[in-house]
Amino acid sequence: MSTIFSKIIAKEIPADIVYEDELCLAFKDINPTAPMHILLIPKKELLNLSDAEENDQALLGHMMIKTKEIAHSQGFEDYRVVTNNGAGAQQSVFHLHFHIIGGRSLNWPPG
Ligand code: DGP
């Protein structure tokens, strides 16, 4: 089930990494939709949010808490966190990732 994101985690292909710790990695999206468009991914291979289970609570909580630090490091106070869960929701890479988007006025609702 490995994807291109596993290769980014393994540093087999380059990415513009903005944050890394033992549990997760954040890097700039190759096709940004806003001045800040970061992808935050777990190092654990989860397909998407639906693939996460009770024992992933700490990992997911850790990642949510880190979004603030990552956005602040890019100079942004306000930001949106979104995940596309499944092909019907426009998920194209099947390794869980949270888009952290900001730096422009964001519309609501999305999609
Ligand atoms: P999604 O549609 O939610 O699965 O978003 C996948 C995102 O991943 C999309 O915005 C483009 C980004 N992406 C795909 N391949 C690469 C890559 O090799 N490097 C980087 N930095 N981003 C990628």
From TrEMBL:
Motif residue range(s): Histidine triad motif: 95-99
InterPro entries for the chain: Histidine_triad_CS, Histidine_triad_HIT, HIT-like, HIT-like_sf
GO MF entry, a single one: kinase activity
Coiled-coil residue windows: none
Top-level taxon: Bacteria
Domain HIT: 4-111
Keyword annotations from UniProtKB, A to Z: Kinase, Transferase
Pfam families (UniProt xref): HIT
Residues of the signal peptide: none
Presence of the UniProt keyword Calcium in the record: no
List of catalytic residues: H97 (tele-amp-histidine intermediate)
Keyword Transferase belongs to the record: yes
PROSITE patterns: HIT_1, HIT_2
Protein known as: Protein kinase C inhibitor
